[in-house]
Amino acid sequence: MKICMMTNTYLPHVGGVARSVSTFADEYLKQRHKVLVVAPEFEGKPLTKRAASIVERVAAIQNFNGSDFSVRLPLAATLSERIDNFQADILHAHHPFLLGDTALRVAATKNVPIIFTHHTRYEDYTHYVPFDSPALKEVAINLSTEFANLCDGVIAPSESIAALIKKRGVTSPIRVVPTGIDVKAFAAGDGACFRKKFKIPAKAFVVGHVGRLAPEKNLGYLARAAAIFVKQTPSARFLVIGGGPSEDAIKAAFAKLGVSERLILAGKHTGRALNDAYNAMDVFAFASFSETQGMVLAEAMAAGRPVVALNASGVREVMRHNKNGFMLRARATIKTFAAHLARLHAEPKLRRAFSQEARRTAENFSREHCAQLALAFYEDIRKATRRERLITQQNPLGAFLDRLGVEWNLIAKKVSVVAHAMVA
Length: 424
Known about the structure:
Blueprint (H helix, E strand, L loop, with lengths): L1 E5 L9 H15 L3 E7 L8 H4 L2 E4 L1 E2 L9 E2 L8 H6 L3 E4 L5 H12 L3 E4 L16 H17 L2 E4 L2 H9 L6 E3 L6 H5 L3 H7 L7 E6 L8 H14 L3 E6 L5 H10 L6 E5 L3 H9 L3 E4 L8 H8 L4 E4 L14 E4 L5 H13 L1 H15 L4 H27 L2 H28 L1
Parallel strand pairs: 1-2, 1-6, 2-3, 6-7, 7-8, 8-9, 10-11, 10-13, 11-12, 13-14, 14-15
Antiparallel strand pairs: 4-5
């Protein structure tokens, strides 16, 4: 199968969507499918030749509005010769705007079905756009819903998100497909090597976190809880993997309690270094409410790390309270979170039991299994749309009208959503 994926974030950007797209792309290639990823230009470490060979870059504005995102330029969506020649069997959009719009146009022009993965609760990210407001959050919700209904099928990364988008009005066929992880690679990381590199004592008790350091991740809460635990536990350290605008807030929480020297901000890591980082931890801590899938939780569990997290979408699909960690109620106090970190430190037998269950949990999220789920959905949607595509292929005028219909729907839906929000 020839699969064309269009995404507004991709490697070397470090984030959930970029990692999801690259994971699926790698696994599709391993299973002998052909892949083309269309993504904006992005500053950072060059990709390997193999990874770069499947990417078509479009011109983009770097570091949009002070973030680490790239935003493709409006005229950069012109169909390239490479996209024309690829002759995709299926289009897969990973965002409902910018290159998502482009994916809809390509699908209409090439008469191929289009799938959309609803990766994100977009209302949690409106602070990256000027003039953030409740009305803008409503626009984000409704735009993603309307976009989903223009697609032939929708992938939800978790049952929580599938239920949420159905409630919001998505009527296109929905299939739950988590982003897979390389279970064996995460299990094989060298934690001792990572600790040595960052001068973390071998006997230190390390609470770790991985992710973008951004406001939507509830990092102020997490940092304060970790700082309380570290203050109470002389051997403890807090290891943070990632980068972003919330780094100063994390530093401030530790400085306030006088434990800055036991905070390790190790920066962004991928590949083997990330595997090593997970294995350098004793416990993984997570407090985000904005996740559609707890991918980092599954990665930590693949490394055998028990988790302390708050009950939220994307988390509850991975966590088994009192089995592979502690899933605390959403409104748990910071002191309660810190107390559960302390309990895992004080009870090594419990920690080992959680670790064994965590490894078993991670097997359910293997990249091979998840890729098969996605490929099966692609085939189902191709079969479901075959008759309609044959009719379009045999009727040039109908194909032209379909393309006009796509353009009209893109404009009409957006105008309707914005107008409704303004009136509200």
